[in-house]
């Protein structure tokens, strides 16, 4: 079996910088036309000038035979100004502003401590400029159970935000719960959408512990119960325009995953399209795969769909146990396992 689809985009991608950027970028550039590049570097990408400089470093690392285009984002802080939002929009290179609640995930220590108290004028300017807010949707209150942090964030932050600024475009990134599905579906279409990762479609929280602690299945937001996984699969395979591809591919050196305090993040760029095809095939919804991977994202962002094509072929292949680079190894998602679909350039 073989499918030819419009080249997909990745609407949530971590490329890092330096030697790690050079190592992982070819895997995304091989399959995806564009990607929203996350800004949580050290130091974070908080200004338009920093985003432009980061974009230049990405462009230098793109393989010569690739048409990959990085779409930049800013890192929202308590001191971001409305003027910075205007500059970002004027640049034509920044496509969203990322909300990291301070302490929520990797390199989020400079994130927002009080969204409504410190950032509301910025959010109003974003609505005015039609600049999407890209949300890591978890509260960081230590009194809230880690498996409930997305649900509580929706109730205490997102719902009030949408009520106060209904014209603001919001992408709830890497959703993990039935609560998130229900929230996105309850909002006005075209204003609130969600990205969905391969890991949250295929794995539940058992994958963290089966056969011992599995550090390479640890990500944030953390994997949830099976009922939540099923709800997300139903949502994305339904044909709804509100959900689109965002891998949240997050590479870390193997030594930073397999240690006493391991980093959160799953590296899935080499296998993402194979895994999305698996999900849609198992749901009997291969006819809806192209819209999820290639149409819904650009339509939401107001960008043209890609004109190039790629092929997905039903052909077993084994995922490498690890990928070696001069700085160390990266373990990909489903390392050592055999996948049934492979993605090929057209």
Automatic annotation (TrEMBL):
* Class in the EC hierarchy, top level: hydrolase
A molecular function (GO) term: metal ion binding
Q: In which pathway does it act?
A: Pyrimidine metabolism; UMP biosynthesis via de novo pathway; (S)-dihydroorotate from bicarbonate: step 3/3
Q: Name one GO biological process term.
A: 'de novo' UMP biosynthetic process
Note whether Lyase occurs among the keywords.
no
Catalytic activity annotation: (S)-dihydroorotate + H2O = N-carbamoyl-L-aspartate + H(+)
The reply to whether Iron-sulfur figures as a keyword in the UniProt entry is no
Indicate the segments annotated as coiled coil, or none if absent.
Answer: none
**Per the UniProt record, which EC number(s) apply here?**
3.5.2.3
Q: Which PANTHER family match?
A: DIHYDROOROTASE
Q: Which family does it belong to?
A: Belongs to the metallo-dependent hydrolases superfamily. DHOase family. Class II DHOase subfamily.
Q: What is this protein called?
A: Dihydroorotase, mitochondrial
């Amino acid at each position: 079996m073989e499918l030819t689809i419009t080249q997909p985009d990745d609407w949530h991608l971590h490329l890092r910088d330096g030697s790690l950027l050079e190592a992982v970028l070819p895997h995304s550039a091989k399959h995806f036309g564009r990607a929203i590049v996350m800004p949580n570097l050290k130091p974070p990408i908080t200004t338009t000038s920093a985003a432009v400089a980061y974009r230049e470093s990405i462009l230098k690392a793109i393989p010569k035979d690739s048409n990959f285009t990085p779409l930049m984002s800013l890192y929202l802080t308590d001191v971001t100004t409305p003027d910075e939002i205007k500059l970002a929009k004027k640049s034509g290179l920044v496509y969203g502003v990322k909300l990291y609640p301070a302490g929520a995930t990797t390199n989020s220590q400079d994130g927002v401590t009080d969204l409504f108290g410190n950032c509301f004028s910025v959010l109003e300017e974003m609505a005015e400029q039609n600049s999407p807010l890209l949300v890591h949707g978890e509260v960081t209150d230590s009194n809230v159970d880690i498996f409930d942090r997305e649900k509580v964030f929706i109730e205490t932050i997102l719902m009030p935000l949408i009520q106060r600024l209904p014209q603001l475009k919001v992408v709830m990134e890497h959703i993990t719960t039935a609560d998130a599905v229900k929230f996105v579906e309850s909002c006005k279409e075209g204003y609130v959408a969600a990205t969905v990762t391969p890991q949250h479609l295929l794995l539940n929280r058992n994958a963290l512990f089966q056969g011992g602690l599995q550090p390479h299945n640890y990500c944030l937001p953390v994997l949830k119960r099976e009922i939540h996984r099923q709800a997300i699969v139903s949502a994305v395979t339904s044909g709804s325009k509100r959900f689109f591809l965002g891998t949240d591919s997050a590479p870390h050196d193997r030594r930073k995953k397999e240690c006493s305090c391991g980093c959160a993040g799953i590296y899935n760029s080499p296998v993402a399209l194979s895994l999305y095809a698996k999900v849609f095939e198992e749901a009997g919804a291969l006819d809806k795969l192209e819209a999820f991977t290639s149409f819904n994202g650009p339509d939401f962002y107001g960008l043209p769909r890609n004109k190039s094509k790629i092929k997905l072929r039903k052909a077993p292949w084994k995922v490498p146990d690890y990928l070696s680079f001069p700085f160390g190894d990266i373990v990909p998602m489903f390392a050592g396992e055999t996948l049934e679909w492979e993605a090929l350039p057209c």
